[in-house]
Design a protein that fits this description.
about 0% strand; globular; about 140 residues; mainly alpha
Length: about 140
């Protein structure tokens, strides 16, 4: 996916925002995990290590940025809606799966979703700002 934007449009700023956003989300996730130290639910269905938190936030940042990049390239509104709804469903499936497997509490998912949405919106605005200001 990254090569599409670099080869066709040479949109290096967008790729930098995408990369920094994903890396920044991962760093923020690690910082929150180590400072909040929220334990995972008992009787989880898979082996887990570390503290609870993260998949909702990092997944939402990644998939919302991917949807944003793809939707910016699509011309038709109906296809944009289909892509957007598809990515929303994917994020919700990931989040619900973490609760069903009992590796996160629902409040952890909601907090991660809120932080991921805030990060994503900030990244969208940063990309729009750079696009309008840079050659």
């Amino acid at each position: 996916m990254c090569s599409i934007f670099v080869n066709n449009k040479k949109d290096y700023w967008t790729m930098a925002v995408f990369s920094i956003g994903i890396a920044g989300g991962d760093v923020l996730n690690g910082w929150i995990k180590n400072h909040v130290k929220r334990v995972r639910p008992e009787n989880h269905l898979m082996e887990t290590a570390g503290f609870s938190f993260g998949h909702a936030m990092v997944g939402l940042i990644f998939f919302s940025m991917a949807a944003y990049l793809i939707m910016n390239e699509i011309k038709g509104n109906s296809l944009k809606w289909a892509v957007g709804i598809g990515f929303v469903c994917l994020v919700l499936l990931i989040d619900v799966s973490r609760i069903v497997m009992k590796v996160h509490f629902p409040i952890d998912i909601l907090a991660g979703f809120a932080l991921g949405a805030a990060c994503s919106l900030t990244l969208f605005k940063l990309d729009e700002f750079l696009e309008s200001r840079v050659l």
